[in-house]
Specification:
62% strand, mainly beta, eight-stranded parallel sheet, 196 residues, globular, 0% helix, single chain
Length: 196
């Protein structure tokens, strides 16, 4: 379904789903110019998604939301898939998965701005912000607390600007910023702390 030029604001969203996938807010197939603002979202399931934008959903603004996800396998706070030119700012994301937790995940999603978010992730393998084949994105002034591996992880993602982020890693296994086969990036004035 296509859904454009909407405002979704000031809602309490609870999606409690046992063995299946749970979505808090889900925009699919060419959803343009939407504002998702000041919602309180809780999602569980085998995979729990707080906010999910899929397939050419562009020019959306996701801001000031409080998101909690807990997947029995995987948890995603905000997930953009093949959706570019979006703004994600001032969100508070707490996510966990028994296997993997992602705070903000961009998959084949370009030219977005991720700024001033507070992200806490837990799981056996965790990623605060994950870029996969996602180019020319900016992560600015985010605060990320990571229970295991990666604060910011980039896989085959070029042209990233990672500036003035605060990264706290709570295990000795962790990497604050990990760039894998990613080129033409800017990384500057990020603060890293090891706390365990």
């Amino acid at each position: 379904l296509t859904s454009s030029n909407n405002t979704i604001s000031n809602n309490i969203v609870k999606k409690i789903h046992g063995g299946d996938t749970g979505y808090g807010i889900y925009l699919i197939t060419s959803s343009f110019n939407n504002t998702i603002f000041n919602n309180n979202i809780r999602s569980t399931g085998a995979a729990g998604y707080g906010i999910h934008l899929l397939t050419a959903s562009i020019n959306n603004t996701i801001s000031y939301n409080t998101i909690s996800t807990n997947g029995s396998s995987t948890g995603y706070g905000i997930f953009l898939s093949s959706s570019g030119n979006n703004t994600l700012n001032y969100n508070t994301v707490n996510t966990s998965g028994a296997a993997t937790g992602y705070g903000i995940y961009l998959l084949t999603s370009n030219n977005s701005n991720i700024s001033s978010n507070t992200i806490t992730i837990r799981g056996l393998t965790t990623y605060g912000i994950f870029f996969s084949s996602s180019h020319n994105n900016t992560a600015l002034s985010n605060r990320i607390s990571n229970s295991t591996y990666y604060g910011i992880y980039a896989l085959t993602s070029d042209g990233l600007n990672l500036t003035t982020n605060s990264l706290v890693n709570t295990t000795s296994l962790g990497y604050d910023i990990y760039l894998n086969n990613s080129n033409s990036f800017v990384v500057r004035q990020n603060a890293t702390t090891l706390s365990f």
